[in-house]
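Question: Hello, beginner here. Any chance you could explain the protein record under this note? Any guidance would be welcome.
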Amino acid sequence: MTRFLQVAGLTIALDLPDGHPVAGHLHNYDPFGIPGPGAEPLLFRLTVVPEAPATPGEVLYRAPQESGEPVVNLLRTEAGFRAEFAPMPKTPVAGVLDFSRDFRQGYLYAPGAPATQAFAVNNAMMLLYTFAGAFRSALEMHSSVVMHRGRGFLFLGRSGTGKSTHSSLWLKYIEGTELLNDDNPVLRIVDGTVRVFGTPWSGKTPCYKAKDVPVGAIVRLRQAPQNTISRLGMVQAYASVLSSCSGFRPFREVTDAQHETLSAIARDIPCYLLDCLPDEAAARLCQTTVDG
């Protein structure tokens, strides 16, 4: 059973054995389904396989065990690379992904219950999209993003800063606001325009919309005792977007491709720093500044 999907205008394929129980836990992909592959080459293909890889791997990166976040370890193999996924530090590996050096083919072994398998599938899809998408001017972001008056506004920040909270304040107080994605949108340059796309991945908030809009602004949030906002210079803007962009720096070719996209975004899209409280005034100050 093959599902063809289109995310941010790029087509991907997911191969599942017929009747595989994980299929019932992947409804986040339903809005992105398309009938077939189309004329454009696939960005990548992910195939779920029944057996664990037998060949060893050399560790490239091991996730910290005290982060409290899902674990992704990266290894090098004879044929390419391997990723190991676990829901939390010190928990069993939920999926093992072997993928090619060009990031266009992946084979995922995902034991466990269907919900655990779905976790592995989603992480494998996001990882392959991050790496392969870099060569198609696509950046997967850690961001909450809203749409307002036909444009998208991305809120960046460290975990716990209040990205989702700030989006919810726009939804509550700024009339005509719609949530596009709450954790993993994609920025992509299409025909010279920076656009933000909804994806099948949205963190803890189930928001899976096959929609896209031009980017109006990117705002980095920082908790503070009062609300102030300032526009960032180009170098600061580049660093701000880079720090919230998914990637893996030792993959030099991926980093170089992302650099070209990041440079264009920092040049063309206004970026701001919002020191803020989690209140209505912060949302209104932000909106009148970036979309007034």
Observations:
- The chain has two domains: 2-136, 139-291.
- DSSP finds five helices and 18 strands in the chain.
- The first strand starts at residue 2 and ends at 7.
